[in-house]
Amino acid sequence: MTTRPALRWAEAARLGLTVSSPRAAWSAAGALFALYALTMARSLTFYDSPELALVAEQLGVGHPIGQPLHTLVGFPFAHLPFASPTLGLTLMSALFGALSAIPAWSLSERLAPARDDLAD
Questions:
Q1: pLDDT, tens digit, for every residue of 27-74?
Q2: pTM for the complete prediction?
Q3: Which string of b and e fits 15-42 if b means at least 16 CB within 10 Å?
Q4: I need a surface site. Which of 16, 89, 93, 102 has the fewest CB within 10 A?
């Protein structure tokens, strides 16, 4: 019987989580991106979307919090040659949302027991 060491939060904080099957994790992220891209809003929606799209497109300053990371990272997505600024920013959200599956995959591998451990 192989035992897996308990997750140490200090290890996780150092980004020490690894993926034992990267192809499967990237496939899951790709599938999530495809699903998100097929179902995402193609234009402006309610809440902060119009303001954040305008700010990212012009490298401006939003409301008091400002979301500077969204503005700086969103600027190139707002200027994609094949998409409107709003569609580019929504694609950015789809991409980063899908990429979040990889650390979630890694964490679930670390927290859940391996299949061969369940038989013992």
A1: 989 999 999 889 887 777 776 577 777 888 888 887 777 688 888 888
A2: 0.69
A3: eeeebeeeeebbebbeebbeebeeeeee
A4: 16
The token duo for 31 is 């599938």
Find tokens 């503005």 and name the residue.
71
Q: How many residues does the chain have?
A: 120
Burial class (CB in 10 A: 0-12, 13-18, 19+), 98: buried
- 13 pLDDT band (50/70/90 cuts)? very low
